[in-house]
């Protein structure tokens, strides 16, 4: 089978050995869970319950009528003990519903399986929305919006993103091995929604067992296939994945739908399947708990709302005090400064890194070697963008397309002078986006 890839990128050590061969473990459920009302891109949900209310497992507890939003569901039965701002992994405080678990595990009567073939394809997005499904690879974009492309856009290809290219992460790998039927069913439901039979499951070549298993299952289905990707970071980036599989280029500022493609993460696919198979909304996810400080690294099935400190305790604690804790992959995940934050829908991993793993080398002067340019998967010029950003030259940032940066960190990773390029570019990108927005608003006025 030919191995597909994209231009640029880097090859960090994958660090997946400690968890890739271990089965997913069920994590105990805590006594108190926290459900932030903004776990997705778009309008925050508004509470549908108040302090003192009883909630059931799978019950919708918050929603918003806005189109780009997603409801939030309780992952346990119990009592609402607070509706108040609580810290979340992004570092902000977000309005949250706090539930005391009664351990009765009493399901909401609305949690009922549904045969997707009994629905019209156009009804699928509403069911997916009602189940609170968002992109679980970290992007947290509401999935029903992806399943409802704008008028004039025709989808002819669906790609399940099984690349999992960030070091340490193995949750998608384990999901593909342990619940492949859910992955296949989720993909079939999405294909049914679009009335097409062109479904791909794209997997990096460092997961040969998942490639073999899913290839065998896809061979029994019409229009499904596995694509083998070269192991390279950021192979799981949406634009890089689409190019590798279809050779189509998503235009700058455009969406996958502009080139006829929808991409969904592996666990998002299983969340869609589980909504139809069992009636369950998105109330749990698989989380990789790893890094050199973790006593017993593994993947855990965790209820959304579970505090990180509870997970770390149940996972056996630390062998040494971590230098840095990251939620998600080490290349793009946000660092954490407190452990009382909850697992949210987009949390793929908790990494507790040793001093050596988290080392930030001292910056040297730019050598003008061009490596950052060669490895940038978006064909940008990171050395100049970082320089413009540091000098506050936002016009040049805009001119040289800083907003196309996907913040993958390949430039910093590959730089021999250890220049903190992505850190500067991230700030410059935010300022450039603010400048563009201000100009657009002034033009409207
Ligand atoms: S400039 Fe942006 S897209 Fe390019 S390598 Fe750096 S972080 Fe990645
Ligand atoms: S890789 Fe580093 S040293 Fe080389 S051109 Fe880019 S910023 Fe300069």
Percent of residues in helices comes to 25-40%
Helical stretch tally: 14
Structural class: alpha/beta
Total strands: the figure is 17
Give the N-to-C terminal Cα separation. 56 Å
Concise account of the structure shown:
The protein is 29% helix and 19% strand. It has helices spanning 17-20, 124-130, 143-146, 171-178, 180-194, 208-218, 238-246, 266-278, 308-314, 371-375, 382-391, 394-399, 410-414, 421-444, and strands spanning 25-26, 32-36, 46-47, 54-55, 60-63, 72-73, 78-87, 93-101, 157-162, 199-204, 224-229, 261-265, 284-290, 298-303, 324-327, 335-336, 349-353.
Q: What can you see in these coordinates?
A:
With 445 residues, the chain is an alpha/beta fold. Among the domains are: 17-21 and 112-278, 3-Layer(aba) Sandwich (Rossmann fold); 371-444, no CATH class. It contains 14 helices and 17 strands. The strands form 4 sheets. It has a 6-stranded mixed sheet with strand order 1-14-13-17-15-16, sandwiched between helices. A 4-stranded antiparallel sheet has the order 2-8-7-4, with no helix packed on it. The structure holds iron/sulfur cluster (SF4) (2 copies).
